[in-house]
């Protein structure tokens, strides 16, 4: 019976029974990456710098400073593509943000992506982004990360006055998006009655950055948690940090790309924007950027980029849609179906389909391709698991997989599982981080 079980039952492995020293060493640079890259623009800049230090004959393509693709040419048709997204749920400033109320100066905001609004109240926030002035000079903005920087706060209502909110309102109604206003100052410029605190804040911004109120109209300023990514747990086996959905996949694919050997097919690592709001716009997975990459690859291989050749290139390509899954939270196990859930420490997750309900809005990977990926991971001793995003009809979510697959590219979602996904402080396993890197490297190299 024991022999039969070993032969027929699936043996789920734990990633910590590998090389612990390599796992811990690999995680150090990743934690630094999380602390440096809190927006898509910062991530692209990091990749460009990393590329300049490590590139030999590889190619790099950048789209509007929010997308980046790394390419290593191969002789055969098609590509092995790992595609992640580098935007994360956050809060943005509105175009006319600054106002004064109740002896405070505040900024109006608009949340981006699927957040739980209450998680962003009364935590230290930093400001990241760019401001484009009327003369088109670009001012980069990063305030709140350094030890001596001020931080910013969206204030919550004190519990003493929250009876109606707690007793009478559901969560959706209790936390009003129009009340997610950021406190930015309180000193008046003079004793005049109106907008003196606002004037003082604008004076500080003018002196420090040379900007006026109108400059915010052509700005992209983002609020991100000001706390640092750190080891978590007595054994330091976990990583707590903002933006791990989906920068954990971006980082592991970047490392895998430069650590993998040249393969018969062209190897591509792609990082894109706007996944968290449905992949719309000219920096998203639905933009023409993937076509542009295909055209440039064909031209570099001395192949005319006709429509027919581009279609042939896509048809012979394969993609890991590098995105995370939701690990089982032991306090909320009821939202998962345990036999088809993903767990911390069990390696990278193969997610055959996402979507919601009856697989709506999902890419459902073909069985032949799933089998191929299984073999690649098994042959290279990459610890992996499979999982769905919760019980059927419990909720669900989507990735960029369906947009990649629409080009007739074989595609499957593949990334580690996180606890507290979309929160300001997501939790990942260092073992899963390392196994994801191994899996991506194996895919690029086979």
From TrEMBL:
<keyword id="KW-0482">Metalloprotease</keyword>
<dbReference type="GO" id="GO:0006508">
    <property type="term" value="P:proteolysis"/>
</dbReference>
<keyword id="KW-0479">Metal-binding</keyword>
<keyword id="KW-0862">Zinc</keyword>
<keyword id="KW-0378">Hydrolase</keyword>
<dbReference type="GO" id="GO:0008237">
    <property type="term" value="F:metallopeptidase activity"/>
</dbReference>
<dbReference type="InterPro" id="IPR023358">
    <property type="entry name" value="Peptidase_M18_dom2"/>
</dbReference>
<dbReference type="GO" id="GO:0005737">
    <property type="term" value="C:cytoplasm"/>
</dbReference>
<keyword id="KW-0645">Protease</keyword>
<keyword id="KW-0031">Aminopeptidase</keyword>
<protein>
    <recommendedName>
        <fullName>M18 family aminopeptidase</fullName>
        <ecNumber>3.4.11.-</ecNumber>
    </recommendedName>
</protein>
<comment type="similarity">
    <text>Belongs to the peptidase M18 family.</text>
</comment>
<dbReference type="InterPro" id="IPR001948">
    <property type="entry name" value="Peptidase_M18"/>
</dbReference>
<dbReference type="GO" id="GO:0004177">
    <property type="term" value="F:aminopeptidase activity"/>
</dbReference>
<dbReference type="Pfam" id="PF02127">
    <property type="entry name" value="Peptidase_M18"/>
</dbReference>
<dbReference type="GO" id="GO:0008270">
    <property type="term" value="F:zinc ion binding"/>
</dbReference>
């Amino acid at each position: 019976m024991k022999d039969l079980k070993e032969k027929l039952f699936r043996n789920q492995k734990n990633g910590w029974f590998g090389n612990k020293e390599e796992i811990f060493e690999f995680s150090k640079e990743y934690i630094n990456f999380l602390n440096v890259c809190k927006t898509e623009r910062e991530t692209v800049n990091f990749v460009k710098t990393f590329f300049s230090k490590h590139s030999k004959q590889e190619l790099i393509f950048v789209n509007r400073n929010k997308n980046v693709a790394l390419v290593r040419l191969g002789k055969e048709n098609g590509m092995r593509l790992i595609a992640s997204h580098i935007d994360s749920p956050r809060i943005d400033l509105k175009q006319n943000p600054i106002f004064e109320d109740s002896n405070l100066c505040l900024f109006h905001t608009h949340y981006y992506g699927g957040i739980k609004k209450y998680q962003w109240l009364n935590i230290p926030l930093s400001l990241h982004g760019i401001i484009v002035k009327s003369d088109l000079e670009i001012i980069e903005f990063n305030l709140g990360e350094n030890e001596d920087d001020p931080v910013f706060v969206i204030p919550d209502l004190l519990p003493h006055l929250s009876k109606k909110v707690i007793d009478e309102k559901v969560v959706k109604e209790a936390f009003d998006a129009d009340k997610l206003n950021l406190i930015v100052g309180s000193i008046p410029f003079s004793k005049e009655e109106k907008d003196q605190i606002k004037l003082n804040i604008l004076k500080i911004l003018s002196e420090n950055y040379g900007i006026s109120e109108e400059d915010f109209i052509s700005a992209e300023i983002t609020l991100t948690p000001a706390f640092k990514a750190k080891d978590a747990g007595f054994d330091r086996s976990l990583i707590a940090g903002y933006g791990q959905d989906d920068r954990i996949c971006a980082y592991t694919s970047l490392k895998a790309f430069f650590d993998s050997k040249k393969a018969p097919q062209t190897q591509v690592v792609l990082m894109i924007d706007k996944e968290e709001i449905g992949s719309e716009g000219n920096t998203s997975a639905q933009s023409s950027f993937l076509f542009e990459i295909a055209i440039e690859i064909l031209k570099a291989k001395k192949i005319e980029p006709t429509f027919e050749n581009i279609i042939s290139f896509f048809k012979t390509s394969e993609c890991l849609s590098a995105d995370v899954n939701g690990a089982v939270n032991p306090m909320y196990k009821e939202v998962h179906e345990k036999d088809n859930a993903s767990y911390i420490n069990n390696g990278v997750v193969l997610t055959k389909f996402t979507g919601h309900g009856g697989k709506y809005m999902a890419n459902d990977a073909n069985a032949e391709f799933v089998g191929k990926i299984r073999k690649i991971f098994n042959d290279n001793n990459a610890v992996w698991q499979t999982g769905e995003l919760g019980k059927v009809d419990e909720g669900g979510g989507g990735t960029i997989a369906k947009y990649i697959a629409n080009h007739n590219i074989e595609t499957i979602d593949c990334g580690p599982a996180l606890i507290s996904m979309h929160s300001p402080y997501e939790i990942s396993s260092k073992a899963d981080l390392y196994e994801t890197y191994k899996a991506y490297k194996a895919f690029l190299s086979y």
